[in-house]
Amino acid sequence: MSDTSILKKGVILLSGGMDSAVLLAYLVSLGYDLCALSFYYGQRSRREVDLAKDLASSYGVSDHWIQSISLPWGGSSLMDSTKEIAHELPQKGEVPDTYVPFRNSIFLSFALSCAEAMGINKVFIGANEQDCANYPDCKKGYFDAYNALIMHAVPLGVASVPVSIEVPFISFYKSDIVSLGHKLGLDFSKTLSCYQAVDGIFACGSCSSCLLRRRAFELANVADTTCYASLCY
Predict the structure, then answer these.
(1) Are 96 and 137 in contact (CB under 8 A)?
(2) Are the C-beta atoms of 127 and 19 separated by less than 8 Å?
């Protein structure tokens, strides 16, 4: 296997949300042959995973694994229907109650195991810290530290090439991601970013994730084709 062929393979964390969908379209446009991982982890909205299946199929992903994992200790309003999800953006420095303890670390561990087993040296995640700076596992320093850990966990790398976590959108604003997705022709209506999808299908339009999404489309001057509950009933 040549180095070129190695570098054109990747494992992508695909949630069915906007960021990971744009990342998928972007990597395919660069010629990557991708495997994808999605997760059921007790989240309120399971619709994202159904959309991830459709996205993976539409973009010709060779393998798409959907993992069901249990986090019975909870710790987040995303997994506890008795907790109200905030309908406002968090204040600067405030970690929102939608943060799921160690979630990205758990997901990345699965993705890195997949990559190592399959001889793939890149794991991709659509995280960005400009609009998600209150999430500790969406910061550049976090990913730098995780990559340093990998060098100890997988000292020989894969096929003599070190495994690494790649975060192409880390310095992007959500509006930058919308602009890129629009340029790539992504159908945003086939993605869902809502924390509490109404009837399991429609975006509520008012949770913090929906507010970020709506603002991103407005700033990018791109038509928002998201089906919000207040507009679709």
Answers:
(1) no
(2) yes
